[in-house]
Amino acid sequence: MYNYLQQVERKLLLMSVLLPLALTGDAQSLQNSIKKGMIKVKFSTEMASILSDARVSASSKGLTTGIPSIDAVARKVSATNMYRLFPYDANNESNLQKQGLHLWYVVEINEKTDLNIAVQQFIQLKEVVIATKIIDSIDSMMAQLNYSKNKTKRPKQ
Q1: Are 12 and 141 in contact (CB under 8 A)?
Q2: Can you give the residue ranges of every domain in the chain?
Q3: Does residue 101 register a pLDDT over 80?
Q4: What pLDDT, on the 0 to 100 scale, is given for residue 138?
Q5: Which of 17, 64, 147, 157 is the most buried (most CB within 10 A)?
Q6: Are residues 102 and 124 in contact, defined by beta-carbon separation less than 8 angstroms?
Q7: Are 107 and 82 in contact (CB under 8 A)?
Q8: CATH of region 33-139
């Protein structure tokens, strides 16, 4: 029960921080927290076996996967690397697959490339379900929450 309440409290705190940003239109603050040169992409379930067999070749010259549609978009957005957001872990792979987390990839692109264009290019692929920018400050905020929770532990009730 205590863990559940901690999770709810974290979510409420996160919403209380993000909601004012959305309501006040403080787009500059949000823009500053977006990671440059990276987007997250979730591929369709049909792509799981194809991606696991893909030979990703990453270099400063560009990204190739052996999947023509992905390679074409990678060239357009100057992608330089692609890797799983949740790395392969033999002990937990079945859980990752159940939750669909094995389908999430990070695509690194040239920092000069507009992230909105990169997201739009990837989302147009039939192999892609979701493409989004990576918000850096949420990770920092969650780390801070964990730090403050561990610092001020409450007694179990």
Answers
A1: no
A2: 1-32, 33-139
A3: yes
A4: 55
A5: 64
A6: no
A7: yes
A8: 3.30.70
Q: How confident is the model at residue 40 (pLDDT cuts 50, 70, 90)?
A: very high
Residues 6+ apart with CB under 8 A from 70: 125, 127
Q: At what angle do helices 2-24 and 136-151 cross, to 10 degrees?
A: 140
DSSP per-residue codes, the chain: -HHHHHHHHHHHHHHHHHHHHHHHT-HHHHHHTEEEEEEEEEE-GGGHHHHHH---EEETTEEE-S-HHHHHHHHHTTEEEEEESS---TTTHHHHHHTTGGGEEEEEE-TTS-HHHHHHHHHTSTTEEEEEEEEHHHHHHHHHHHHHHHHTPPPP-
pLDDT for residue 111:
87
* pLDDT > 70? residue 148: no
CA distance 36 to 113: 9
Judged by average pLDDT, the poorest of 16-25, 49-58, 98-107, 148-157 is 148-157
Contact in structure between 131 and 44 (CB atoms under 8 Å): no
Overall size of the chain counted in residues? 157
d(CA 41, CA 39): 7
Mean pLDDT of the chain: 78
pTM above threshold 0.85: no
